[in-house]
Amino acid sequence: MIDLNKDIQYVKGIGPKKSQKLNKLNIFTLKDLLYYFPRQFEDRNNLKKIIQLGNNEKATIKVVIAGVSTSSPRKGMDITKVDVRDETGYAKLVFFNQPYIKNTFKCGDTILVFGKIKKEFKNVELSCCEVEHLTNFPKNTCKVMPIYPLTYGVSNKEIISIIKNVLSDKELKIQEYLPQRIIEKYKLCSIDYAVRNIHSPSSKEALKIALYRIVFEEFLILQLGLFMFKNGANEAEGIKFEESKKLNSILKSLPFKLTGAQDRALSEIIDDMQCEKAMNRLVQGDVGSGKTVVALLALANCALNGYQGALMAPTEILAEQHYISLTETLESFGIKVELLVGSLTKKQKEKVLEKVKNNEVDILIGTHALIEDKVEFDNLGLVITDEQHRFGVRQRSKLSEKGENPHILVMTATPIPRTLALILYGDLDISIIDELPPGRQPIETIAVDKSKRDRAYNSLVRKEVEKGRQVYIVCPLVEESEAIEAKAAVELVEELRLEYFTDLRVGLLHGKMKGSEKDAIMKSFKNKEIDILVSTTVIEVGVNVPNATLMIIENAERFGLAQLHQLRGRVGRGKHKSYCILIYASKSEVCTQRMSIMQETNDGFKISEKDLEIRGPGEFFGTRQHGLPELKVANIFKHMKILKLAQQEARYIVCEDHKLQNLENKILKKEIIEKFEHSVKEISLN
Ligand code: ADP
Ligand code: MG
């Protein structure tokens, strides 16, 4: 039997040259190749007559060759034209720079041609043709053509032929890893059949059966993996908290009354924490909906019950901000709050750690410094992750492992459509804060071409500053490196200080600055010592300065919708009317689409749904966002029914055998670990 983990270059018929090309597609082993599934299929069963062809469509015709001619209009350019006909008309096939091809055509032969149609009046031309001579064409082969996702330098034809060659090896057999019970229950085909028929379907029906199996399997593995990471926390016995009387006094001491939605979320949380079972809850609320105070009250309730709580945030700025607001509110009630972030000195850290261990700290706030091994709690009762989409699955569970079944709360401002939530948080209860605090005015968003940049700076920025408000200017996103991004930010500040706002106070914030520097800048922005804060995306999440009312985003086309929405959420946090100016420098369709969505709505749920539509769930599930294995074929919209079945089955499996140790689940477990490890290195399952 052939080892599927074999390096691709040693596979029969592949060799170093082809393997280099395959590496470009992230194909390194035989298994990678076999699981390199087509992106779509073109149905070539539907033969058309020449007379039925429409301009710009792709179609297959069955025709007789009537003549071949070649020409060479320029040096280095060869055109081969082939006249063909059927009983309804004539057409021309056009081939560029394939001089050898003319020898393959013989007048009078019948061929099948698939190509792109250009039709002007009665002239029909087919380009990018793929031709099949009917004589060498076995009758009962299905004409469904796989189309692979490719990069430059690798053609679809090459991939098809490489895979065909591999599949024809008699020794090849892909071992089944789904338990027989599941195969029978859901009437799935074997993995061997599925892989073969996805690449080279023997019939349309076979392709359908193959796809069904793969979709089911992708969902099942994703879901099982997720459940396993969560350690079956749902079933764990929790710590029973009482609702403390003091909580009411804390509520009363707040400068505002909770909104109805906040109130609801809070009681759901308090109820959960009174229950036998450990809480496992997600709070979804749009930017600015007031999630922090809900977290604060949950943590206070934990502390008042004599347990320690932890709050983890993705950035230092955010952690510090939480630290300040929690200290302000809770200290007078005798609740001790501490901060643990990377930029503390060693000594400071040691002191905090000591206190946490000795239970002299009630609430510990920090970045992922919290999950380091040396952090030990005395009696951790509640763990909260803010902006959870910024953390990997593993990071989250690492924090809760520091206690004995602590209650778990995760908060996100990237609301996701229900369908997605169902997968990602299949085992979580969900609270939704779908109401903004009173008095907020919707942010007015205006997208302008970069030629209007001057106007935006000279009139809008000044106007807001004159009213006593403050302004954020976000520099273009640079994907490659934080350092280049920081440099761009420095340059922008120079430009602004020298050219536009010589008389205003312009500050700078970027990811390469030291924690203490960032801290100082944020403090002076909060204290109104800075009028305009130029920043990279480090301010994307959580930052809260209600007096800031104008946000300008440069090169807005480089950001995704969800990110633009997060950034925009930095303004509109107080009672003043706020604006967001998106300056774009692209005329692409995606850009236009994004800009108009941003102008139309402030609703995070709607935006993320659109985002999903534009980018497709594939990217949404990309490793950057969630650290989850990629769904290659499964589509959460199209395959909702299969998703639900797979989810049910995953629940059942975890319930019966939550570590997947039974004989029939063992092989499946290996597959899950492999798939998850492919995208997330940090994950190790035991
Ligand atoms: P997010 O949900 O984005 O984390 P925050 O918790 O940062 O939002 O809250 C945004 C702002 O709204 C803060 O200034 C906070 O003090 C304020 N806020 C929260 N809840 C209320 C409320 N019920 N009434 C008035 N203001 C509120
Ligand atoms: Mg927040």
From TrEMBL:
InterPro entries: ATP-dep_DNA_helicase_RecG, DEAD/DEAH_box_helicase_dom, Helicase_ATP-bd, Helicase_C-like, NA-bd_OB-fold, P-loop_NTPase, RecG/Mfd, RecG_dom3_C
Enzyme type, top EC level: isomerase
Record's keyword terms, sorted: ATP-binding, DNA damage, DNA recombination, DNA repair, DNA-binding, Helicase, Hydrolase, Isomerase, Nucleotide-binding
Record domain Helicase ATP-binding: where: 272-433
Helicase C-terminal domain residues: 452-613
Catalytic activity, EC: 5.6.2.4
Keyword Cytoplasm: no
The name this protein goes by in its record: ATP-dependent DNA helicase RecG
Function recorded in the entry: Plays a critical role in recombination and DNA repair. Helps process Holliday junction intermediates to mature products by catalyzing branch migration. Has replication fork regression activity, unwinds stalled or blocked replication forks to make a HJ that can be resolved. Has a DNA unwinding activity characteristic of a DNA helicase with 3'-5' polarity.
Reactions accelerated catalytically: ATP + H2O = ADP + phosphate + H(+); Couples ATP hydrolysis with the unwinding of duplex DNA by translocating in the 3'-5' direction
Molecular function in Gene Ontology: DNA helicase activity; hydrolase activity
Recorded family membership: Belongs to the helicase family. RecG subfamily.
UniProt cross-references to NCBIfam families, sorted A to Z: PRK10917.1-3 (NF008165), PRK10917.2-2 (NF008168), recG (TIGR00643)
Key word Hydrolase present: yes
Top-level taxon of origin: Bacteria
